[in-house]
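## retry 2 of 3
previous attempt timed out at serialization; input unchanged, resubmitting
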Amino acid sequence: MSNTLSCCRIEVDNDLIKNAQILLDTEKESINTKAKLFSLLANEVRLKIIRLFLSYEKMCVCDLSDVLEMNQSPISQHLRKLKDAGVLLNERDGMTVFYFLNESHRKNLKKIIEG
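## retry succeeded, writing output
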């Protein structure tokens, strides 16, 4: 005797299936973008970094290192991933590189993180 569940559908709703496939096709790019963002935010350190940037305009690796009580190297790796995804931008001021949120992501990130 098998414990696997199986579908007990009597009739196939072809319209539902076709419309659902069209919906996913039309939103494919948006879904991929959101999946990448959620993947980035699934990491606790990156989530903390984004939370900090929602409250503080800009920070450098040293600031983040002190706040998160972590070495600069892993923080730099997380910043690189966020920057490569377009979530963060950076600017150089002398020898210091400051990171800040890409404003085009602020509203959505605020909703996701702050509820």
